[in-house]
Amino acid sequence: VVNDLDTLAKLESGLKLDQKAFNIVQCVNDVIDMLEYSAKKKNISLNLGESYDYPIMVKADKEKIEQVITNLIQNSINYGKIGGHTTLWIRSHTDYRIRIEVQDDGVGIEKEDQARLFERFYRVDRARSRDLGGTGLGLAIVKHIAQVHGGRTSVESELGRGSVFTIHLPHEPNAEA
Q1: Which runs of E-coded beta strand occur in the chain?
Q2: pLDDT, position 127
Q3: Beta strand pairing status for 19-23 and 152-158?
Q4: Backbone phi, then psi, for 77, in 5-degree steps?
Q5: How many CB atoms lie under 10 A from the CB of residue 141?
Q6: What is the DSSP pairing of strand 97-104 with strand 162-170?
Q7: Is residue 16 within 8 Å of 54, Cβ to Cβ?
Q8: Does residue 90 have a pLDDT over 90?
Q9: Which of 57-66, 88-97, 135-144 has the highest mean pLDDT?
Q10: Are 163 and 75 in contact (CB under 8 A)?
Q11: Strand pairing class (19-23; 85-92)
Q12: Which residue of 31, 55, 112, 167 is 20 to 30 Å from 99, comparing CA positions?
C-alpha cells in the first residue's frame, strides 16, 4: 500500500518521466513472458491477438508503461476464469495515437461500477479482492501513468462475458530505438 501510494503521489506531483523511444510490441511480449507462470496456475492463456512483424514505437517511460501493462494483465489473471483467455492487442493510428488493449473472458464488471474503476481504493467486489490481495490502487496508477504520458484509459465490460481495458498513448511512428 505504501509503495502504491508513493507512486501515485509522485505521479500527481509531476514525476519526471524518463521518456525514450522503444518498441511497445517487445515490451508487451516481455510482460507476457514475465506473467506466464502466474497465468498457467489458473490455466489462463496469455497471447497477442496478432503477429507483429514490425516494431510499433512509442516515446514514453518504459518502466512506467511496463507497470501499466503488468497491472492490467495481472488483473485479468486475478479476475479471469480458470481455463480462460487474455489477449493483448496493439493498435496504431494515423493520428499519432496507439491503443493497447487487454481483453479477457473473465467475470466482467457491472455498468455502474465501470465509471469508478480507476478511482483510488475502489473495488468492485471487496470480499473477493481481499482474498486476492492488492491495494485497490492498481487501476488508479494505470490511469495516472497514462495521463502523465498525455494519454488516457478506458474500459468496456459485460457481466459474465469479460472486459477490455485500454490505454491510449502517443505514438512515435518514425522513432528509432
Answers
A1: 19-23, 45-48, 57-61, 85-92, 97-104, 152-158, 162-170
A2: 41
A3: unpaired
A4: -75, -50
A5: 21
A6: antiparallel
A7: no
A8: yes
A9: 57-66
A10: no
A11: unpaired
A12: 112
The answer to whether 35 and 74 have CB atoms below 8 angstroms apart is yes
- List, in order, residues 6 or more apart from 162 with CB less than 8 Å away: 84, 103, 104, 105, 106, 107, 108
Task: Give the three cell numbers for residue 60.
Answer: 514514453
Lowest-confidence pick of 93-102, 132-141, 151-160: 132-141
CA atoms within 13 A on the CB side of 115: 2
Out of 1-5, 68-72, 126-130, least confident range: 126-130
Please, which pLDDT band fits residue 138 given cuts at 50, 70 and 90? confident
| Count of alpha carbons within 13 angstroms of residue 132, beta-carbon side | 19
CA distance 119 to 64: 18
Write the DSSP symbol of residue 124: S
- 99, 90 in Cβ contact below 8 A? yes
Contacts of 70 (CB under 8 A, 6+ apart): 31, 34, 35
CB atoms within 10 A of CB 103: 18
User: Cell numbers of 123, please?
Assistant: 473495488
